[in-house]
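Much of our argument rests on the idea that a fold can be written as discrete symbols. Part of our work consisted of pairing the sequence of a single chain with a tokenised description of its backbone. We regard such an encoding as a compact summary of how the chain folds. The amino acid sequence and the backbone structure tokens for this protein are reproduced below.
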Amino acid sequence: AKEKITDIALSPDGTRIAGTGSNGILYSWDVTNNFSAKEVFKNPSGAELTTLAYAPDKTRRIIVGDNAGLIRIVTEDTNLPPRILSGHTAHIEQIHFNHAGKFVATTSRDRTVRLWNWEKLNEQPIVLSDHADWVWSATFSPNDEQLLVGINSSSSNAAKANETIHAWPTEIESMSGL
């Protein structure tokens, strides 16, 4: 790839590296075959792909976000059309799975976090939207009981942690229907 790579991820089995390009192309490099490269997906709008994550299972699915707010699920080595997860209205900053692989959080410059049930993608995500500015990043606590997000605080009081980091209990057991 000769353009700016905006994000990379290693597949769960360690055999592939995926990268999003500023030209709207999702690339995959085969670690086991001298890093041979291929184009996996090209954004039809040409919009920059901003971030990605491999699904934690063995399905070879890659979740990719773009600067227009669309999230797509692409399956490597198939001609299946990508599945679109809509709702965000601005640049996708990060896509992050919880440790159990049951939930995926997407963060956006639209000031929201969406928490998707990976096993029930037909259901609407939980939308966390009480942020005063862009949501840059997300991670889950080691026990998956909290979702932590980093906020781009343009406030003059940005040094206060409660304005730059938000935490929510995720109640994974009740959310997963256990």
